[in-house]
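3.2 Worked example (two chains)
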Amino acid sequence: MIFLTKLDGKQFLLNENLIETVSETPDTVITLSNGHSYIVRESMKELQTKILEYNRNQRRRMMRRRTADDAEPLT
């Protein structure tokens, strides 16, 4: 999940897997697969960066977990 900021300044978490489309009109409008829309302060480029960073961190966590599992002795 990524932190975003509504136009009123309130932050919220959004599940990036639910994003269907993003457009700038000039505000950034995020439309989810369930039809809900959010207008946020972040630009499309900032949103893309947040999503890429989140996914990169998730992959790193998975790799660490796999490495730790492989290091456990077999009984």
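3.2.1 Second chain
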Amino acid sequence: MAITVNIYYSGVNGNARKFAEEMTAGGIVDDIRAEDGNIRYEYFFPMEDKETVLLIDSWKDQHAIDLHHASPMMEKIARLREKYDLHMKVERYLSEGDEIPAADKAFIKE
């Protein structure tokens, strides 16, 4: 069962976006994407809130997340969070599988 974690990073003076840009430019994002069990690691910018960045972070299972959290990568991320004085709101979702229910498919245009 895959696990998706939405992390909302918030700051001031564009710091959340600067954090995401440094994570990307510094190669940290690519390194995380290459970790065993990572499915998705992608930043988004809410239109209504210029001081927040949304990270969608998906993993194969809890074991993959635990390995990621124990990796040296987390120290780098923590340092950047501190550098940009970011606050976090976290949401966690478990997938039920790959099949979208028929009732929901009626609302999806592919």
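3.3 Remarks
The chain is about 35% helix and 30% strand.
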